[in-house]
What we know:
The protein has 8 helices and no strands. By secondary structure, the chain is mostly helical. It holds the Pfam family VTT_dom. This is Inner membrane protein YqaA.
Amino acid sequence: MQAWTQHLLDILSLPEYGLSTVFLISFISATLLPMGSEPAVLGLIKLNPSLFWPTILVATAGNTLGGAVDWWMGYGANKVMNKYQDSRSHGWAARWLEKLGPKACLLAWLPIVGDPLCAVAGWLKLPFWPCLAYMCVGKFLRYLSMTGGLVWLFPSFFAAGFSMH
C-alpha cells in the first residue's frame, strides 16, 4: 500500500506533471469534496512562472468540468426534491435560483456555497450549457484575479523575471 501511495504521489508531483496535477486537483475541488485548488495553482506558477496562463486555463477547465459533474449530480437528485420541497430554506433558494437562472452559476467560484449551487442548478433543471458557460466565466475570473493579485502583491515570492504575457 505504501509503495502504491508513493507512486501516486510521484505521478501527481508538481514539477514533472504540473498541469495535469492542477487539472485533477481543480476538478476534484469543484465537486462537493472539501478541497481547494489554489495552493496547487500558486505552487506550479511559483515553480514555473512561464506557465501562468496555461495554469489559469487548465485550472479553469478542471474546475468547470467539476462544476458540470455537480450539475449532473443535482439533476440526478431531482427526485429527492419532493422530500424537502416544503422547507423554508429550500423554497427561498429555489425561487432565487429560478429567478436568476443560469446567471446564478457565475457564483460557482464562491467557497462553501459555489459547488452546491451547481448541484442545485442541475436539481432545478436549469439549462446545462448556459450554466456551464457561466460557471466557466466565474471560475476563470476567480483564478485570474486570485493568482494575478497574489503575483502582484508578493512579486518577490515568485521567480525573478516573471511575466504574465
